[in-house]
Design goal:
heterodimer; A: alpha+beta; seven-stranded antiparallel sheet; three-stranded antiparallel sheet; globular; B: alpha/beta; Elongation Factor Tu (Ef-tu), domain 3; Rossmann fold; Ubiquitin-like (UB roll); 3 domains; five-stranded parallel sheet
Amino acid sequence: MTIQFNDETFRDDYSFFNSDRAIKRFPFPFHEDSYMYSVNMEQHRGGPVDSVYEKRFDVDEHYVAEMRDRAMVLADDPLRCQSLPHMTLAGWDLLELIMVSKSEDYPDLFELHRDGNNWRWVNKPLGIDDSFVFLDETTLPYGPMEYITRQAQGDFCVLDQRDDNLWMDAGMVTTQADWSLDFDIGMNFFEWHAPVPLAHEKGIFVRALKFLLNIQQGAPARRLNWTMTVNPLLDTSPENYHKWGIQKTTLTPENIGAKQHLRVELQTFFRLPRSNALVFPIRCYLCSFQDLMTAPKWGRRLHRVIRDLPEELATYKGFIDNRPMMLDYLSKFDDGLPTSDGIWPDLETEPALKT
Amino acid sequence: MSGAEKIAVKVTDIVPLNELVTRFKFARVDGGRLPTFSGGAHTVVEMRDGDITRLNPYSLMSDPMDQSAYTISVRRDDEGRGGSLFMHQRVKVGDEMTISYPVNLFSLDLRAKKHLFLAGGIGITPFLAQIKQLERFNGNWELHYACRTESLGSYVDELTNHHPNETHIYYDDQNDKIDLVNLLDGQPLGTHVYVCGPKGMIEWVRGTATAEGWPREAVHYEEFLAPQPGKPFEVKLAVSNKVIQVGETESLLEAIERAGVDAPYLCRGGACGQCETRVIDYTGNFIHRDHWLDDDEHANGEKIMPCVSRFEGKTLVLDR
């Protein structure tokens, strides 16, 4: 399978687009016609062919453009990438995990040659061919975590595990849904989740932490999370809220189909072997409403989910003001027919929209 | 399936160290590389002994970076339920066995400015891997290791030869004793203490450290409990609708598994919390032996850790 990398932007002229293939494999996050928080974890060991679940780290048509966008964010704000001193070993663990996974899963794009601790890494899409000494920071242009996450889509939180808790002690965070690594660095699991409404009362975080603390080597896990973003912006950070927050007011009934994007995070969790830390990659996928509506099942379901979502959640996810306009648009794609279980579009079996 | 991921291995070396302790070396059956791990990790070894399957945790003591083989050291327990005796008497070089992926419940706090290790007897094993890990990164550590006698001092020579400045040995039969209060008092700020050994030693170190004002987060301990034999008892498993008998030398968890009921577990030593099971009804007394539940939970009869705890009485109904 060869990937044609898009020449596109996630800022200014927003030339980002999804090909038909990218739409079909979009990780639609709703497995039923309603949504509430749950500890919706499952094992991360493959999935349907060409789905975003298939590989350990999904590489898609947005790879090159996303890495370009990350470099721009980092040039403006180096604090998007931080690693406390005790997390360097975890950074090497992450570098190894990503290099081994990508070279095995995409041998036509990535190569890893290892001779003891002398490693050579070839990244064809980005034109990188570097030789370095594993565990010797002086042989890389950046620290190990920064080096490899400048070449991997999605944000990466590297969590130290101690005192029966997880600590946000390192990360590369440039494509986030309105949270800040610089603010959260050094916090524990309950501290950085403090702003989330409803979930604490439901005991979600106590159970989620228990699950995460017990993720073991060789048994990664995953879940989906979601929010809404106006314009295909990767960098919706609090640091830049003054730039993107205002864009939420530019929606009109005419442009909402193209401008309003469902933002889905494929969150995975891997135990890192040498450091016993946990890495939490958060991979962001964007899809415009109009592209989503090409799957009749997703059109019906998205309308029902957004319509019935508790007000606290619509507020927390930042689209309470635009919800009426979204519902006006989405209701045209909901004919009231039942939908099949699960997240997949089921294009062959789900009936077309009744008009 | 419960427990950590499994690895098929072959026994490649067996070395008796002294009258009680024997070292075993494992390599992958398929010749591939074993996962690296972090110092302090253990593996669960499956022992198939006729109809009985025992799963015992052992600390990995080899270099965490060495992917060619894992080594463990097993102390023979003549009073135990037979797992260590099986390893000592039945396992031969060339045997194929199943072990779990490494699981670490006793990892180094990498923020520490210095790691102070306190080992008692076979409790030396996790420190051997941690020392190898720290040596690679020029870590600052010091070991105080108490053994019963010189002849039972597993790895004493290796440690004192390679790390003469960091290693301090104490022999019980020579009345050597770790001068713990002074030792703790002399540590630089940012030191973390780790203790692995018999229950009494762990309690002594934790108690002394608390009394000396050490923060709880800077004191780490690991005690794997082997499940102890006890009187047979009967249990009703409500979810699977089965009544099972727990034999004298098997654990409640093993009896549940023998009945074909899949129950979660990881450490099988009362430490990790995975096998926590809700008690629906009981008449009798629990023999709680785990480190997971707190004193209130041990008293209120609502939960049991079936890997190490037992029951004596008329009725026990579990949510499993």
